[in-house]
Design a protein that fits this description.
This protein has 162 residues and is α+β, with helices and mostly antiparallel strands. Helix content is 35%, strand content 15%. The protein is built from 5 helices and 5 strands. It starts with a strand and ends in a 5-residue tail after the last helix. Bound molecules: FE2/S2 (inorganic) cluster (FES) (2 copies).
């Protein structure tokens, strides 16, 4: 076991973990951040997607040790000042989920896309979620929601929104 300091959603945490512990195990089991889901636990479904220094990663394929010194963002850290991220709000508005198990990972990837490219196209959105498996077929509404969120981001950047 070794001591590990991590920064999650802007807050510092110290945990004692086995060096083979994955990031998602620390998030869920040590820190209680259960918004990040485990689907396959082998890098095939993207349910466990989080941001590491602003880039999307599969947290089931990332050793917690490799997150040392980096900014980790989970679904719990996406809302700011009690206000949902535009992608979260758009998922609600467009009913972009059914069972919801894949939703946190989808939201993290779609939010990553619109943050970087508010002018994203449908193809961009398809690409962003191409590694995410949703078995209940919520994709059409996920696409609509993400494009709506991108439009909201554009409006916000142009000073036309809240
Ligand atoms: S749980 Fe990590 S990719 Fe499926
Ligand atoms: S909403 Fe259930 S698997 Fe996608």
């Amino acid at each position: 076991m070794m001591e590990l300091s991590l920064t999650v959603n802007g807050r510092p945490f110290a945990v004692h973990v086995d060096p083979a512990t994955t990031l998602v195990e620390v998030l869920r089991d040590e820190l209680g951040l259960t918004g990040t889901k485990i689907g396959c636990d082998r890098g095939a479904c993207s349910a466990c997607t989080v941001w590491l220094d602003g880039e999307v990663v599969a947290s089931c394929m990332t050793f917690a040790l490799d997150a040392r010194g980096k900014q980790i963002t989970t679904i719990e850290g996406l809302a700011k000042d009690e206000q949902l991220h535009p992608v979260q709000q758009a998922f609600v508005d467009h009913d972009a989920l059914q069972c919801g198990f894949c939703t946190p990972g989808m939201v993290m990837s779609c939010a990553h896309l619109v943050e970087r490219n508010p002018a994203c196209t449908l193809d961009d959105v398809r690409g962003a979620v191409s590694g995410h498996l949703c078995r209940c077929g919520a994709y059409p509404n996920i696409f609509k929601a993400t494009l709506a969120a991108a439009a909201a981001m554009r409006q916000r950047k142009s000073g036309g929104g809240t």
